[in-house]
């Protein structure tokens, strides 16, 4: 894994307010042609009243030539959620600026794991990323509020929270840490895989080493479920499961499939224990240095890419489940999971963090 940094030879360009990056990513440059037709955007939240206009229309001089180095940790494939959201953002930005602003996508952790890459965005050594919320609490503790088990009733509930007042509040807090949120996207409901036996109730996790993200709420939740949580970078996960360092992991179904975890995991349980947002983030000082026209392009493109990515995930759900079964995974369906037992175990986590997160969690649960 090679971590790219902004070239010092382009420092003059950086001081002029331009984003810079390293050489073109040949692995992903052709994927824009492989994406499915755009679904009709749902729940679009324009950044302003004129967000549907093309800010570059009739005036190419509004934009200087620049490159945005953009990373994520998932595979650079046509069935990868984060990659497809990233590629849609690239397409929209380059179209809106008539190619003056290019977006260079680095998938599969080429720029580091999520926490490492997020630190790079904070410092400005990585321009942008599309990330899960797992590491966010290390930068702004209130962001952990989105990671409590069984918090969101369904996707529509999550979208209303993320695209509304609460999402804006947490985005503003992240801005104080140097991370500008352009839009909240989706990673999805997380499910458990392992190599030992089906997981139907918390007791089935007793003694199993389950890889989690580097997130204190996730780790506390799996402790409450009876597992031994083992945080590690996503980029290390496949090999760790292959070598038996961990017994299993938990991720959205699309991540499990696009990462080919079925090659090293036998059992899949559709627990849906966490809803995991994702987010488009950019170095705040860089964003603030851009012209209002470019800021608007980035905000609008992220909002449209968010809607595209959410619809993409929803449209692939059944196909991914069928592929998991076809590849030999033994699936425990939702109706066979003892949700009451998992909910009861989860209360330990809510009680432990009530003084820190209780107010915002109750506000999230109250959103209709």
From TrEMBL:
InterPro entries: DctP_fam, TRAP_DctP, TRAP_DctP_sf. Residues 48-58 have a biased composition (Low complexity). Residues 23-60 are annotated as: Disordered. Residues 25-34 have a biased composition (Polar residues). The keyword Endoplasmic reticulum does not apply. PROSITE patterns: PROKAR_LIPOPROTEIN. The keyword Transcription does not apply. Keywords: Receptor, Signal. Residues 1-26 form the signal peptide. This is Tripartite ATP-independent transporter DctP family solute receptor.
